[in-house]
Amino acid sequence: MKILLKILFIVFLVWVSIGAYLLNTDHEKAKIVMGLCVLYLSFIFMPIFIYFRYRDGKYKKYIINDDKLRNAFKQQGKG
């Protein structure tokens, strides 16, 4: 999965650089290329990246719940 993400990211970088080159040369299809690049980033790369990143429950330490809030307020009162 990690290799797939690296390949997809390299494809994205190449695509953006080609789109930027086409925009600088005022090519007629430059906006279409950049628009497709944004769609690729939004609907292909990002969902795969988010799934890979948070599939093992790594996100749980970032969720604020009642226990974490109580502990934070207790720590603030001690300091």
List keywords for this structure.
single chain, mainly alpha, 3 helices
Description:
- This protein is mostly helical.
- Helices cover 77% and strands 0% of the residues.
- Helix 1 (2-24) runs antiparallel to helix 2 (30-54).
- It starts with a helix and ends with a helix.
- The model has no long low-confidence stretch (mean pLDDT 91).
SSE topology sketch:
Elements: H1 2-24, H2 30-54, H3 66-78
Helix pairs in contact: 1-2
Question: Helix count, per DSSP?
Answer: 3
SS strand fraction = under 5%
Number of beta strands = 0
Percent of residues in helical segments? Answer: over 70%
> In terms of quaternary structure, what is this?
single chain
**Major pleated sheet:** none
Uncertain ranges: none
Structural class: mainly alpha
Overall pLDDT confidence: 91
C-alpha-based Rg, rounded:
21 Å
The ordered string of helix (H) and strand (E) elements is: HHH
CA-CA gap between termini: 44 Å
Task: Choose one word for the global shape.
Answer: elongated
